Amino acid sequence: MRRFSEVVEELDLRDLPLQGGSFTWCGGPNNRSKSRIDRFFISEEWESHFQGAVQTVLTRPVSDHAPVLLDGGGMRRGPKPFRFENMWLKSEGFKEVLKQWREGIQTDCEKQKAWILIDYWDKEERGRSLSWKKKRLGRRQGSYIRSGLYWKKSHGGKSLGKFG
């Protein structure tokens, strides 16, 4: 263990901040022994590329070790590239947004304004259809669970026995 600590020090590595808990392992009688043995170490150079990186302790599904998620914080390379979505052409209202933009073109400022309008419009459209789909899916799942069809479909038509 001492040699490990020496290597960490020699390489000038540091431990990232940990979120979601203080320990990554528990064991012993009644899981009373706890330790933080699972972690990510980073160098100063790595941190200069991924600012805001953190480790997050997740729940332990089976093991005595909790999984640790590394969130690198993302790399900044400039503005997000514009991506055109073909579905926009089929949606009502999109052509009107483009028409308004085209009529007022004078500078790059107008172009930026159009992209902002399109981006806002896209988020609104996606938000509506997604929440509609979620509601529909939720109702469908609820009826499957209540009727026992979900169990029967996922287990080859087998009965639930005394429960169904």
Helix content: 40-55%
Contiguous low-pLDDT stretches (5 residues minimum) are none
The overall average pLDDT, rounded, is 73
Share of residues in strands = 5-15%
Describe the model:
It is a single chain. This protein is α+β, with helices and mostly antiparallel strands and 164 residues long. The chain folds into 2 domains: 2-71, no CATH class; 87-163. Helices cover 46% and strands 12% of the residues. It has helices spanning 2-10, 44-49, 87-90, 94-103, 108-147, 149-154, and strands at 14-15, 18-19, 25-27, 33-35, 41-42, 54-57, 68-71. The strands form 3 sheets. Strands 2-6-7 form a 3-stranded mixed β-sheet, with no helix packed on it. A two-stranded antiparallel ribbon has the order 1-5. Strand 3 (25-27) and strand 4 (33-35) form a beta hairpin. Helix 4 runs antiparallel to helix 5 (108-147). It is elongated, with a radius of gyration of 26 Å. The model has no long low-confidence stretch (mean pLDDT 73).
Secondary structure: elements and pairs:
Elements: H1 2-10, E1 14-15, E2 18-19, E3 25-27, E4 33-35, E5 41-42, H2 44-49, E6 54-57, E7 68-71, H3 87-90, H4 94-103, H5 108-147, H6 149-154
Parallel strand pairs: 2-6
Antiparallel strand pairs: 1-5, 3-4, 6-7
Helix pairs in contact: 4-5
Protein name: Endonuclease/exonuclease/phosphatase domain-containing protein
Organism: Vitis vinifera (Grape)
